[in-house]
Each structure stands twice: as C-alpha cells, then as structure tokens.
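User: Some background: our group keeps a shared notebook of sequences we're curious about, and every so often someone picks one and asks for a predicted structure to add to the entry. Today it's my turn. The entry only has the sequence so far, pasted here. Could you supply the structure so I can complete it?
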Amino acid sequence: MTQKISRRGFVAGASSVAVAGGLTACAEPGSEDFVPVPGLERGPFGADSTAEDVTAGLDLTGMTALVTGANSGLGLETMRVLAVRGAHVIGTGRTLEKAETACSSISGETTPAVLELTELDSIASCAEQVNGMDRPIDMLILNAGIMALPELEQVNGLEKQFAVNHMGHYLLGRLLLDRVVAAPAGRIVVLSSSGHMWAPDGGIEFDNLSGEVGYDPMKAYGQSKLANGLFAFELARRLEDTNATANAVHPGIINTNLGRYYSGWIRAFANMFGWIFMKNVEQGAATQTYVATRPELVGLSGYYFADCNPIVPDPRMNDEKLAAELWDVSEEFCRSYLT
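Assistant: Of course. Here's the predicted structure to add to the notebook entry:
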C-alpha cells in the first residue's frame, strides 16, 4: 500500500510519514504561503508554468483520466495535454455534441461523455457509462463550474452554484470512487478557488442551501468553492486506507467563460488588460494537471494547491467538523442514487 503524506496528519503533528525518494513541488519561488510538507521541496514550476511544462517527459500511456467540463477553457486544455502524454481521457460536456466536438478537436485517445451537473439523472448516467468501461480511473479531475450568477437560481431545491460546483461533483465522485480506488494510485483533483474566502462567516450555510433566506452572487460562489475544498479534505480522510488520494486546487485568475455572468464592462476590461494580471488557459491548467500526474506526488493527500504549490487555505477549509457535516448533508441529498 502506498504511504500517505496527509495534510490532516501533518497538521495534527504526524510529520514522520514520507514518500520514498522524496518529492519535488512546483512552487513559486519566494512564496510565503508554501506548506512545508515532509519530503516535499520547492521545485522549478510556478505561476508562469503551463500544463505542457509540468507534464514534460511523462508517459501516461495505459492510464485513464476523466475531466469534467472538457469542452472549453481549463478542462479542454487539461484533456488535450493528458491525451498528448498518452492517457485515455474521458471528456465530459453538457451535451453529447459539445463533448464529441471537444474530443474530436484534439489528438490522442478520447471518449466523449454527457454530464449535465444540474441533473442528477445525467450524473448517474455518466457514471454508469464510465463504470461500464470496467477500467480503473487514474485521474478524476472535477473541473467544471459556474460563477457569480447575478440572480438566485435553484436546481433541485439548491442554489445553483452550490448544486453544480459541489453537489453534482460530489455525486459523480461518489459514484466513480470504486474506479479510482481500483487504480494503482488513483487521484481525485477537485477545483476550488481562492474565492473560497468569500464564503459566509460560518463556512457553509446549511440552513440556507436553497439561497432563499438571502442571496449574494459572490458569497454563494465562495460557499461552493469552500465546499469543493472541504469535499477533497474529507475525501482524503476517507481514502487513508487505500492507494487513492484527493487534493483541491486553485487554478489562478484566468479569463475564461467562467466569468460570463460578469457585467459587460468588467468582461471588456478583462479582454483588454487581463494579460497584465491574469494567467492564460495554458497556465491555468497547469496546477490541476500537475497534481493529477506527477509521480513525485504519489501519496500526497488532503492538500490545497495554487501555482503547483501546496499552500495554506482559509482555516475553514481545514475544519474537520464542517467537512464531516458537509459530507453527511451531501450524502443524504444524493442517497437515492448511492444505494
């Protein structure tokens, strides 16, 4: 069984666990937020690195990856690079047409799959298709998401950002968990965001998951991104007796269609001047690709990465009680699909 370097264990003082041979993290030189993980040293990659840079020299032949939201932006670039390196990539889109178009636009072995994260039946059908392939999933990259809906929208009684960003991915991850555990060193990478700091003071408003008590676009987005991090944190704990790992990622500030709900002047500003302070898509896909592929990171679980660097998140993302409560609420919500 693979030894684990667990953020939870390290924070608790169990710092003696190490991966044989040591690890090299891709960290921004001089980063003050770097988490000193046992055996993990700063490496050559950082904010300017691309997904191709961090996978250079890797041969992923024989591995299977699933990337949600693979039809555009970070998901498409992640799928492209993984396929270039030899992996078989299952790329999901909200419709079969979008998934097929994305998969056919790149070189390598790909399989399109329909995944509409607002529809629980669609999530279950996608999982059934993937489970039917009867092959381990080496990399499950939960990438898709929405941001800052200007008005309250609900899906299955939940505020839509929470429903799509967290609950949909929670259900997909749970339904595919056995496939990840079946891999020699399966990895689950959950896209969070530095926006998790915008979450309500209490972290998750369990008494207002519908958004009806009060709705603020950025606070709701922050809550959903905090939920992503808490999901990875709790999942890492539950995977401790397996070879599988789970980590959360902040990809950076990137001008993708994630910001399509912003006002016109904000989008115009980003299009004109975003190159000054934003990453491009190739750079934005680097951290999730790094965490999903690097052999040096086998056994690293329960961490939060930015610029390919394990960093310190908002303390609420380390809240074991909050993570466990979110898991229980999510499990209950999805129970009819998990039995």
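Suggested note for the entry: The chain has one domain: 5-338. The domain at 5-338 is CATH 3.40.50.720 (Rossmann fold).
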